[in-house]
Amino acid sequence: MASEDFKFNDIAPYDDAEFQHKMRHLVEEPGFLHAVGYAMPKEAIPALIEDLLKINNKYDFQHQIMFPFLEMLAKTTTSGITIGGVKHFNPSLNYTFITNHRDIVLDASFLNLAFLRHNLPTTEVAIGDNLLIYDWISDLVRLNKSFIVRRNTGLREGLMAAKKLSAYIHYTILEKHESIWIAQREGRAKDSSDHTQDSLVKMLALGGEGMFMDRLKEINLMPVAISYEYDPNDYLKAREFLMRRRDPEFKKSQRDDLFSMETGLLQFKGRVHFQLTPRINGRIDQIGDFPDTNTAARHVGSLIDQAIHRSYEIFPINYVAFDMLYNTSRFARKYTSEQKSGFAEYLEGQLDKIDLPEISSEEREWMKEKIVTMYANPLKNKLRTFFGGEL
């Protein structure tokens, strides 16, 4: 389906013509003001509101408000944000940056911060409507160049939503001349083993012109590997694993999602690295066409996975976790005894945060192994990519 077959006003970022109207409405929302109170002193909020009401477009909002806010967040919750592979970014092209998914909010935000530091244009950001728990959150993200991914729809409605989303992505890259960010899968990989969903690749190929592979090539897929030294949500993921072990029907609440977002935003992440890789158009040409879209999507997903796995930044904590998981000293030269004992202390501290009743010693050890696996998996995937599946 062509982009002209759709109207995008219900999913696209707000147009600059309506920016000030939407901003005036946002700063009157009690929920927004409450959230801002978490990030800054209450006495500074009136001046922030005054600044927000002077802004009339997304560009100024990102550069005057979001850029300094993200710099503050990076300074207080990370040991530094770095980016590599900028040489692969051709300013005359627009890209679909497709990444692994570590943090609900910050993956795209910190990537855009890295772009802003290099005077590169920011991307539009795909965000699932399951995270837009309140109307003011929807308004805020759409003021900040985000577009909405409709989820949890019926089968027929889901297909139409996917076609519309794909058409919007193609329209944004080819006609608006903006790049977009999207995660390689719906939701974060709970065990930090990142793999592209075939359904995502098939969605991306619903829009555009030509054969399946031609449609993907026209949106310039560029895999980007995201590496966080520490995952503030590791203990919450282990908690969720145990809840599902105890009750296979367990489902997270909206409160759980909000707490995960807050934890990811405000807690320490250590070093954060983004590695841009070449767009995969040339690799797509090499593999050619396939008779069915399932096979084609699987092969394209594999190309994305290989690029991401090969480009992880591996930190000492990952080497420690691998050796701990497999009871080996294979990577002992990659870390000090202090780093190893520090990771052991970190694990116990994270496990102590898990607020479930009657956790047995067996369950605690089980959750510890889950967290260790989270930190070992990036290295495991990188090794498999370089050594053909062998660890």
User: What is the approximate shape?
Assistant: globular
Q: Give the strand order of the largest sheet, numbering strands 1, 2, ... along the chain.
A: 1-7-6-2-5-3-4
Q: Report the radius of gyration as a whole number of Å.
A: 21 Å
Instruction: Write the H/E string, N to C.
Output: HHHHEEHEHEHEHHEHHEHHHHH
Helical segment count: 16
The CATH architecture of the largest domain is 3-Layer(aba) Sandwich
Walk me through this protein's architecture.
The protein has helices at residues 19-26, 30-39, 45-54, 58-77, 106-117, 135-143, 155-174, 198-204, 212-217, 234-246, 254-266, 281-287, 293-310, 316-326, 337-352, 361-387, and strands at 80-84, 96-99, 124-128, 146-149, 180-183, 221-228, 271-276. Helix 8 packs across helix 13 (293-310) and helix 14 (316-326) crosses helix 16 (361-387). It starts with 18 loop residues before the first helix and ends with a helix. Helix 6 links the parallel strand 3 and strand 4. 53% of the residues lie in helices and 9% in strands. The longest helix has 27 residues, at 361-387. The protein has two domains: 3-15 and 80-230 and 268-311, 3-Layer(aba) Sandwich (Glycerol-3-phosphate (1)-acyltransferase), CATH 3.40.1130; 317-387, no CATH class. Strands 1-7-6-2-5-3-4 form a seven-stranded mixed sheet, with helices on both faces. The protein is globular. It is of the alpha/beta class and 391 residues long. It is built from 16 helices and seven strands.
Write the layout of secondary structure elements.
Blueprint: H1 19-26, H2 30-39, H3 45-54, H4 58-77, E1 80-84, E2 96-99, H5 106-117, E3 124-128, H6 135-143, E4 146-149, H7 155-174, E5 180-183, H8 198-204, H9 212-217, E6 221-228, H10 234-246, H11 254-266, E7 271-276, H12 281-287, H13 293-310, H14 316-326, H15 337-352, H16 361-387
Parallel strand pairs: 1-7, 2-5, 2-6, 3-4, 3-5
Antiparallel strand pairs: 6-7
Helix pairs in contact: 1-6, 4-5, 8-13, 10-16, 14-16
